[in-house]
Amino acid sequence: MARALGTHGMAAHRLEEAIDLAGNALGVKTQCSSTPTSVLVSIEIGEKRDTYLSRVDPRGTDLSKIVAFDELLRRVVEGRIRPAKATRIVKRIVARRQRYPAWLHIIGFAVAAAGVARFFGGGGVEILGAGVTGLGVGSLAHAAARQRHAARLLEFAAGLAAAVLASLATVVLGPASIPLITVAGLIVLMPGMTITTAMAELATRNLVSGTARITGAITVLLSIGFGVAVGKRIAGHLPGGYDAPPTPLPGWTEVVAAFIAPLGFVVLLNARAKDAWVMVLAGAGSFNLSRVLTAEIGTDLGVCATSATVGVLGNLYQRSRNRPASTIIFPGLLMLVPGVLGYRSFEFFLIEDTVTGMQTAFRVLITALALVAGLLLANVAAAPRRSL
Q1: How do 48-55 and 29-35 pair as beta strands?
Q2: What single-letter DSSP state applies at residue 109?
Q3: Which of 155, 214, 329, 337 has its CA 20 to 30 A from that of 201?
Q4: What is the three-class DSSP state of 323?
Q5: Under 8 Å between Cβ of 378 and 310
Q6: How many domains does the chain have?
């Protein structure tokens, strides 16, 4: 169970709490230590102690499997299923194929990119361009997933492809904001959620896991940024490159985009179809609430208050529906995470604007800390019954 939860995106503190809960229910003493790439579990029964170390191959968040793990863990804790049988079920859950076909995942990239382009102030041309760029990045991600060595180059290749596609899109669609299209097209690969999870782990004293995770996030940002820089050089020798400020759209289109973009995340997070309406409401509500609160009380307090609200609603959903709080918390936070700020920080370093780059990087950490503080406050205001 520890290896399975680590594989599918569970933060260290939540994973360790889940394993400790299972150990207590089974009458054994357990100690668990988790990092993004390994889990170490010690099990003590009487005078005998066994310690197990397992390598973890992170595959990203899969909400449908997290729901299944949560249900199985609850059955074990309540004594409704024996551990041996539960172990076999864990392996079957891990071996399941993706809930949605590859073509729908690729469309999910496009839908998320188009919605985010509107959040960034893009007009109709930027939204279309971001959708096309998202399709290209999604296709590249799907192709890279089939080959281990290619997967290690995904972020660099995606950054390069996004920069080239954004420039070429202006040939067909007309002048547009190429940087906006590029960033929106890459939004799914931006490690904003990873940064937030890392800060949560550091805040809960999981120092090794948090440090490793934030280092991985920085590496992803560097790879994407370097790919974009190379892509811009290549695009300079190709048709297109007609950069222009975006044409503003009416305010109501942003509200519509706030409901459409989470649909892409439903597919990308492999959530169950029957949970889609909850995730869409969580994503749209989080985005619109953050806009109102940041305008009224400032960015940092607004993000913290929004995060706390999302956390409370997630915990209440867990208590009332007996489902993981992650079903609401993940889509709610995805609309707030600071991944794009991290990318822009690296862009400033590339053009040797070190001061602005440092300021933007510091803003990333402040935003992530505000999100984490909100979630910790939510756990005090409405304590979750279980760790997942």
Answers
A1: unpaired
A2: H
A3: 155
A4: coil
A5: yes
A6: 2
Contacts of 100 (CB under 8 A, 6+ apart): 108, 267, 270
> Residue 125 corresponds to which tokens in the numbers above?
């041309």
Does the pTM of the predicted model rise above 0.70?
A: yes
- pLDDT tens, 138-193? 999 998 888 877 788 889 999 999 999 999 999 988 898 888 899 888 888 888 77
pLDDT above 70 coverage of the chain, percent: 94
Q: Name the maximum alpha-carbon separation found in the chain.
A: 74
> Domain end: 34, 65, 95, which one?
95
Could you give the dihedral angle defined by the CA atoms of residues 232, 221, 108 and 234, in that order, rounded to the nearest 10 degrees? 10
pLDDT of 200 reads: 83
Name, in order, each residue with C-beta under 8 angstroms of 186's C-beta and a sequence gap of 6 or more. Answer: 113, 133, 137, 158, 159, 162, 224, 228, 343
The predicted pLDDT at position 378 comes to: 87
**Amino acid letter at 184?**
A
CB 191 within 8 A of CB 221: yes
**Which domain-ending residue is among 79, 95, 111?**
95
- For the chain, the first-to-last Cα distance in angstroms comes to 12
Of the candidates 66, 72, 88, 108, the one whose C-alpha atom is nearest the C-alpha of residue 272 is: 66
Q: Are residues 112 and 206 in the same domain?
A: yes
**Residue 48 domain boundaries:** 2-95
Q: Identify whether residues 133 and 219 lie together within a single domain.
A: yes
Q: What is the DSSP letter of 51?
A: E
**For residue 168, which amino acid is it?**
L
